[in-house]
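Batch manifest line 383
LIGAND: iron/sulfur cluster
JOB: complex structure
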Amino acid sequence: MRYRELKRCGNLKVSEIALGCEGFVEKTPEEFREMFDRALALGINFIDMYTPNPRFRDNLGAAIAGRREKLVLQGHICAVWENGQYLRTRDLKKAKEAFEDQLHRLGTDYLDIGMIHYVDGESDFQEVFHGDIITYCKELKAEGKIRAIGLSSHNPLIARKAVETGLVDVLMFSVNAAYDMQPASEDCNALFDPATYRNGFAGMNPERKSLYELCEKENVAIDVMKVFGGGDMLKAELSPFGVVFNEYQCIEYCLTRPGVVAVMAGCRSIPEMEKAVSYYDASQTERDYSLVLSQMDKFKFHGNCMYCGHCAPCSVGINVADVNKYLNLCLAQGEVPETVADHYKLLPHHAGECVACGRCERNCPFGVYIIPKMKKAVEIFGY
Ligand code: SF4
Ligand code: SF4
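JOB STATUS: finished
ARTIFACT:
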């Protein structure tokens, strides 16, 4: 397992492969415990708890007893349990009761991330950020009941506005190669609707791209939901691309986006968790999503780096995908942020070492002119 830092959350380290909670909800306490123990043994330390289901909370509370400190818990504020089912609300009283219920059932006095649940619409954004809910979250953070404020969304425009408030430390966002090519919408169901994809793909949506870059710049950690598109990406008959992405390609795609720290894999069984974590044993070829995308009939993204790494190996060992990522972050922001300069410095080889052999360009399925990019990186970073 590899870990990345939540930079605005005391540099807490979270496993790159983390858990969504949906696969646990229907489990008996014994099944829950067995699956959770296996998750920890695999090195997973990060779990999202969007569901307010009391049975889930009780089972998780029992499973984490005595080892709370080893875990990074992401709970959702405004997801409540009413009449035996999940409900999203902005009612402060209900949100408070649900939060206290969560702490109580988990047997803890704090959550690492208090995630404002599911904000996709403009009016909802206004209500949350100019009303009681954000005030409540700030109070919870000041009291130490949450260490970070998060927000979950499927809409890049709303997510961006939330990040721009400066109040959001962690963003839970729906990311996969198919969603990334769709424009912003207040209706997240459009993302899951096959009709959305009938006109093909025109490349990465600029609003999503710039959201990820902003998060990287502001040290807002993105944890990913819908990494497998609810499973659709893994089945040819359901995949928006009409071809299967394997689990490794889905995970690799997300972990190579700027700002992303973890994918919340919605595993429903121990074998599914083991499959997700076997990403680390997969070959570069098995993880490579570039050929699937570049061979799509209607996919037009010529000349834009997708950070896929397919151009490797470089003759002198430069990690072209990372250099391009850091370069693009600087170009998008019109400056060289200190954090990006630090990341660049830590690379074992730098753009200045490029001997212009052209090997990488011959390997790039997206037709990126890499040599000019290496020159631009030297211009920007100085080496
Ligand atoms: S230059 Fe091409 S092959 Fe290399 S990471 Fe970018 S898109 Fe992928
Ligand atoms: S052109 Fe430069 S970046 Fe590409 S393989 Fe050759 S040395 Fe590496």
